[in-house]
Amino acid sequence: MAELFIMEYLTVLYMVMAFLFMDSRYSRRRTIFIVSIVTLLLMAAVAALYRAVDDVDTAFWTYAVTIHIPLILLLFTLSRFRGWRLLFQQLSVVLFCTLIHHISGLIYYLSGSRFWVLVLSCTALSTGVIWFLIRFLRPLFFQILLELNRGWWLICLVMATYYIIAVYLIPGYVGFNRSSSILKPAIALLMLGFYSILMFLFSNVRKEAEARHSAQLSTLQLSALQSRMEAVKAAEDAIRTERHDLRHRLHAVAELVSRGDRAAALEFLDAAQKRLDEQKEVRWCRPPVLDAVFSSYFDQAKNQDILVEAQISLPDTLPADEGELAIVLANSLENAIHANLALPQGGRKIRCKMVGIPSIMLEISNPCAGQVSFDSSGLPVAQREGHGLGVQSICAFCRKNGAVCQFDLTDGWFRFQLVL
Fold first, then answer.
1. At 51, which helix (H) or strand (E)?
2. pTM above 0.70, yes or no
3. Which of 59, 81, 151, 266 could form a disulfide with 85 if both were Cys (CB 3.0 to 4.6 A apart)?
4. CATH code, 284-420
């Protein structure tokens, strides 16, 4: 009875942990449905396995294979991540499940094999661990998966070594064998210490990333606002010059009118009006940081002979931090400018549309000279080392603010769309 309870309980626990450690590419409802169906199928398979195998050690050894292979297939199907990050998700699920299993098994063994103690200890440990994961570890976990680019293979090697030792190399089963009931929980606690150090390092990486993000935001705001101030000052100087020359122009117009040359006078005034219109400063939107970013990057584009078609209509109040949204705009416009530089001057163009009703919707498109590769999540793959950080920053913004973004290449045009 106790063996079957542990196996079925661990099956449910594995699936719950998999859901917590997984950043699914599908909606939450669809993900829960798929995980629930897989859980029921695995519970039925575990019950059949328990009845078919007489030896407890063989049953538990076979159980590990029965659960872990479908678990990695489930993560591969649903998770946004691939490679070492996917394996790290799998091994993290195994670590916390085996930790709960081994500690509760030790308590069960020390209690004299009382079944109610096993149930109580499993429930208490699972509740505490799941609360800790949801409250503290899960946000850090997902952020590190996005920001840390190296070292995953070494972390996975250490955790895989623990998995092999704890599950396959140490004989006996926790709760039913004295040596394994002591040795496996001790190794699990050591592994927990390693994981705690790992999370501490991850926390430092996150703080450094936040500091870089804050510095990037400050630099962007300062650069954009400074560019905006320079543009305003240039326009003011030009208007001041025009005002200074106004009396001379009026004198010239008066002279032309006195001669009866009205056509020349009108032509002269029209030319003066055009010069004033050219010096008029364009305001793209009311939020000052976004307006500065638009002005800065549109001016950069025009200096590179890139035609800009912009339609922008935004409210005064935004549903997200203005500075963070400005970084999204800066990254996407910068990518569009760089893509245009590979084209001949006559074919360079950027289309930017952004509205605030009924929600923030942004589309930036540009012609693309070459092919763009997309990963399984629909994100463009960087062609060179050190590139692709802008896309990662955009994805981080979407995760934080519940936005949806999409990249595609159609008929030679690369499009970035965002809905917030």
1. helix 28-52
2. no
3. 81
4. 3.30.565.10
